[in-house]
Design brief:
alpha/beta, 7 helices
């Protein structure tokens, strides 16, 4: 018998407080829920709903102390295109939060290696903020981030803040440089050997396009990371958010319910099939 999903499915209103243009096709929205919404955990997601248009699962990119939720959205469909036309002060619907997030409890006392590609930095941002807020609980932090070109890097206005976190580093790379870029050129996996965080007493958190995550796993294993030291977010595969539509099924797992964050050992058997 199918497990009954007990969760709130009715969206609540949320006001758009602020919109930041990140890249030509990506914006960050600061949303204030007007109703009861459970405090999200890093790595979870919500469903953004617009009446008459539809809904879409969007990763949580930040949780502000006053309850404001930060979500970074790339325009890739009808709902997100409509969302991009809205202004500060407009209302949308939110339901959630859903899913299993990053293993924050397991990170305490550990060195942390964050590897993000493109918009994959968005669900990793709350981990950076958590380490920054409670710095003494965690070991060294290495943030490795890559994008196709400099104009597609997210949160560039926060990079100096990341670098200022004690006992931390930020390493950046782009696939193709322009005349403004003086940093590393190449795929993000090339940064892994350069990171000061090494496998001993470390956990790696990875999010990005599937092909990038596959190469990242290989690079991490080459450096000595074991399967139980690697966590992946498969958040891009979701649809309904509660495991009813089956769109995000991977083997016996529903990404929206059993993930979107998985320990690599748990998903390894299914991660290398073509349809992931």
């Amino acid at each position: 018998m199918q497990e009954v999903v007990k969760t709130k499915l009715t969206p609540i209103p949320a006001e758009i407080l602020k919109i930041i243009d990140e890249t030509p096709d990506t914006k960050t929205f600061y949303l204030r829920p007007r109703g009861s919404l459970e405090t999200p955990k890093p790595g979870q997601f919500t469903e953004i709903y617009i009446p008459g248009v539809g809904e879409a699962p969007i990763s949580i990119s930040g949780i502000e102390p006053d309850g404001v939720i930060v979500q970074t959205v790339r325009s890739i469909g009808t709902l997100t295109e409509y969302l991009f036309k809205l202004k500060e002060g407009d209302l949308i619907g939110l339901r959630g939060p859903y899913g299993k997030g990053w293993p924050i409890d397991k990170l305490e006392g550990k060195d942390i290696l964050i590897v993000g590609g493109g918009i994959g930095l968005a669900p990793l941002r709350p981990v950076i903020k958590e380490v920054q807020k409670n710095r003494s609980r965690y070991g060294r932090l290495s943030i490795l981030y890559g994008a196709r070109m400099p104009s597609l890097l997210l949160y560039r206005y926060e990079f100096d803040e990341y670098r200022s976190i004690p006992n931390s580093e930020l390493l950046l790379t782009v696939d193709r440089a322009d005349e403004t870029w003086t940093g590393n050129v190449g795929v993000v996996t090339e940064l892994i050997p350069k990171a000061t965080v090494k496998p001993e007493n470390a956990i790696a958190l990875v999010c990005g396009p599937e092909i990038m995550m596959r190469f990242t796993i290989k690079a991490l294993e080459k450096e000595g990371f074991r399967e139980n030291q690697i966590y992946l977010s498969l958040e891009r595969r979701m649809k309904c958010g509660v495991g009813l539509c089956g769109h995000c099924q991977v083997g016996p797992y529903f990404v929206c319910r059993h993930g979107p964050v998985f320990p690599y050992w748990m998903i390894k058997k299914y991660f290398w099939v073509d349809q992931i």
